[in-house]
Amino acid sequence: MTDGEHRVLKFRPRTHTPLPAAQRSSKLAPDLSRYERAGESRDDYRHRMIANAAAIAFTAALTGVGIWLAMALADLRNKQDCVLMGRRDCANISAQKTDLIRHN
After folding, report:
1. Helices (H), 32-91
2. Is residue 90 a contact partner of residue 83, using CB atoms and an 8 Å limit?
3. The pLDDT value given to residue 4
4. Which of 18, 21, 22, 74 is at a distance of 20 to 30 A from 60, taking alpha carbons?
5. Sign of torsion, CA 63 64 65 66?
6. Chain-wide mean pLDDT for the chain?
7. How far apart are CA 92 and CA 83, in angstroms?
8. Reduced to 3 states, what is the DSSP secondary structure of residue 96?
9. What 8-state DSSP symbol labels residue 30?
10. Helix (H/G/I), strand (E/B), else coil: 44
C-alpha cells in the first residue's frame, strides 16, 4: 500500500454473548453487606438545616466581602490613574447637605 491509498475498515457491532449456566447461577459481585453501617442513626433534620443556614450565611458574607474588595480596588485604581495623569482634584469630596439661610 502506498501513502496515497486509503483503506476503509468496516466495524461490526458486538453482540451480547449469553453467559454459561455455571456463571449465571453464581454471584457476579461479592456481598456488600460488610460495607453497611451497623445501627444506622436517623437523619438529624434540625442539625442539617442549621448547618445549611450557616453555610449560606458564610457564603453570603464571603460574597459581600468580595464585592466590597472589588469596588475598593476599582476606586483605588481610579484615584491612582488620576494622580498619575498629574491632576490635582483627585480626592473624593463628599457634599453634605447644609441648610442655607438667607439673611435679608
Report:
1. 45-84
2. yes
3. 72
4. 74
5. positive
6. 79
7. 13
8. coil
9. -
10. coil
